[in-house]
Amino acid sequence: MASSPITMMKMKLNNCSPPSTAAAARFLPLLGPHQIRFRSSLALFHNPSFPRTIITRSTFSSSSIITAAMASEASVKVIDGKKVAKDVRDEINAEITRMKDSIGVVPGLAVILVGDRKDSATYVRNKKKACETAGIKSYEVCLPENSTEEEVLKYISDFNDDPMVHGILVQLPLPSHMDEEKILHAVCIEKDVDGFHPLNIGQLAMRGREPLFVPCTPKGCIELLHRYNVEIKGKKAVVIGRSNIVGMPAALLLQREDATVSIVHSRTKNPEEITRQADIIIAAVGKPNMVRGSWIKPGAVIIDVGINPVEDATNPRGYRLVGDVCYEEAIKVASAITPVPGGVGPMTIAMLLSNTLLSAKRINNFK
Amino acid sequence: MASSPITMMKMKLNNCSPPSTAAAARFLPLLGPHQIRFRSSLALFHNPSFPRTIITRSTFSSSSIITAAMASEASVKVIDGKKVAKDVRDEINAEITRMKDSIGVVPGLAVILVGDRKDSATYVRNKKKACETAGIKSYEVCLPENSTEEEVLKYISDFNDDPMVHGILVQLPLPSHMDEEKILHAVCIEKDVDGFHPLNIGQLAMRGREPLFVPCTPKGCIELLHRYNVEIKGKKAVVIGRSNIVGMPAALLLQREDATVSIVHSRTKNPEEITRQADIIIAAVGKPNMVRGSWIKPGAVIIDVGINPVEDATNPRGYRLVGDVCYEEAIKVASAITPVPGGVGPMTIAMLLSNTLLSAKRINNFK
């Protein structure tokens, strides 16, 4: 999660409105582990197993179960990333309390920020806040734009050796005079909570191997599918975009779950035709409203990773955020969709916390 | 190339005959770097660039150019892996001579064989022979079945330190009492000519990164496409099979070349329908004749990695080798296809030699 899928692309407003205007759409009920029946005729929502969770103890509230029981097919539409992220953070919080009480260890996450990019500072602030809320101790280093590579490497080396730190995150992008690859590789693999190290990616790609960490945003996408009990095995999945931080690892994750995966990218000649075959679409391309209603097979499940600011004179900030999927069109065709904002976005930080907890547990051999 | 795609599966004869019986099929002409025009109306064969080669000097003979000029569309069918592999080996041989004359270095490949599996012994013997022919010095260690892990690790460690050795290959499978992953990881990444280390695979998956080595069989598949000037960029490619040694890295390689890639596997519900959309098919599943004519889009290019022995009472050995693709049906539909044997098979060892040369050049900083 060292960089963000946000593309500062601007465009004219089209007929796709943000989620807030799609007032009729109701939130898709979460499936809790205690729920034994789920009434839904949606083709993809028939996995009888309980949703897999990233940590073992679950704090699903009974209210979500009640909601599920009342849900009708027409209302099953919006995948509530905010809610899931909160559930995940609550679960992490409970696990951290258990670990602290049991062995006295508190997970620690170190974030290194170089330069004064406003967006990077915001991300780091949000991460810090989320850490505090979850009970993770955060260590923050802010270095000036003109710092040397050696200075950054020295901090990484210190954090590598620090037993209080279980995850190290270098906020990207780094200033242009620094070798990003060299700096990221300096983070020891056991603390690479971003999961961007090629060794991690290789293990993600290989059958029979387990990565130490799964990159946060794609992990969040899959977690949303799990929490909403979307069956992945044997389904056709299309990933739009092949970035190292989202598209590519998302495709590898879907394949690990036995989906039949196709990857659509800028060189794909007929993206619409290929996407229209998908039962599950993960869009991570950074182009506002690129995926139109006509691209979507009726009943498909859509995870929209894009967070694109587009001009909007009616908004006090002068812009609003939209996804890579034309939401207003998609919601008429898909069986479920993540809104932007409030879909994948909140999951990314939740997964960072999850990876940090995982690291602390592994380093301390705490089950 | 530590293990082979051969599956010792047996089946009854079906109506698919081996390449030798498809007498009408003629060999697809190779494209040489000096050829300036290539008459072909095949949709996929219109890449105007010269074929990329794995080493810079080319020894394409003028005869292949003449063949190309004479080729008619109807005859453009069989991709001659034997011929390409010979060309590659000749090119490697020339490069080795140049390096030896220039800096006095001869590439060295160490092969470790544990146990007395007959097939493994055959592979090792073939590799040794190919090394000798190409001018690569081979070092062979044969250990008894009941050797310890420590003994194997000691040999690997010695080869890691030996400046005469530029590639180390542990023949798989290892005896069951050994930890394959541990042993393979002991090979230093700079000498992992198999390219199976997760770090290599990770770098293969990531955009903007370069693996030190590409696994031999998938590298051979792509090399065949290049040598026959098959355009990959923007084409739909389907890889059947997702093994760590062929299918998965083949999919990553095709994606690096800007194909739109779909991966079909045992959990895919409609493999025929998906495969039929492909301009390029790489079949690496180990099931004799699985891909039938009806699975193939007219004009598709097929790389058949399978080498499956099937019962054949008419054959003195009692069996014959067939691919994953029903050759006799496929050749009526495809624009080009690799035969089995004589297609991908010979390329695998050629690519091992290529990787060993690459390693020797890199270690000695020889351009």
Automatic annotation (TrEMBL), chains A, B:
Q: Which UniProt keywords apply?
A: Hydrolase, Multifunctional enzyme, NADP, One-carbon metabolism, Oxidoreductase, Photorespiration
The UniProt entry's GO CC annotations, sorted and at most eight, read: cytoplasm
Q: Where is the Tetrahydrofolate dehydrogenase/cyclohydrolase catalytic domain?
A: 79-194
Pathway-wise, it operates in: One-carbon metabolism; tetrahydrofolate interconversion
Q: Which reaction does it catalyse?
A: (6R)-5,10-methylene-5,6,7,8-tetrahydrofolate + NADP(+) = (6R)-5,10-methenyltetrahydrofolate + NADPH; (6R)-5,10-methenyltetrahydrofolate + H2O = (6R)-10-formyltetrahydrofolate + H(+)
List the InterPro entries. Answer: Aminoacid_DH-like_N_sf, NAD(P)-bd_dom_sf, THF_DH/CycHdrlase, THF_DH/CycHdrlase_cat_dom, THF_DH/CycHdrlase_CS, THF_DH/CycHdrlase_NAD-bd_dom
Please give one Pfam family short name.
THF_DHG_CYH
Q: What GO MF terms are annotated? A: methenyltetrahydrofolate cyclohydrolase activity; methylenetetrahydrofolate dehydrogenase (NADP+) activity
Q: Where on the tree of life does the source sit, at the highest rank?
A: Eukaryota
SUPFAM superfamilies under this entry? Aminoacid dehydrogenase-like, N-terminal domain, NAD(P)-binding Rossmann-fold domains
Ranges of residues in domain Tetrahydrofolate dehydrogenase/cyclohydrolase NAD(P)-binding:
215-362
One record GO biological process: one-carbon metabolic process
Q: How does it assemble?
A: Homodimer.
- Family membership, please give it: Belongs to the tetrahydrofolate dehydrogenase/cyclohydrolase family.
Record's function text: Catalyzes the oxidation of 5,10-methylenetetrahydrofolate to 5,10-methenyltetrahydrofolate and then the hydrolysis of 5,10-methenyltetrahydrofolate to 10-formyltetrahydrofolate.
The molecule here is called: Methenyltetrahydrofolate cyclohydrolase
What species is given as this protein's source? Solanum stoloniferum
Classification lineage: Eukaryota, Viridiplantae, Streptophyta, Embryophyta, Tracheophyta
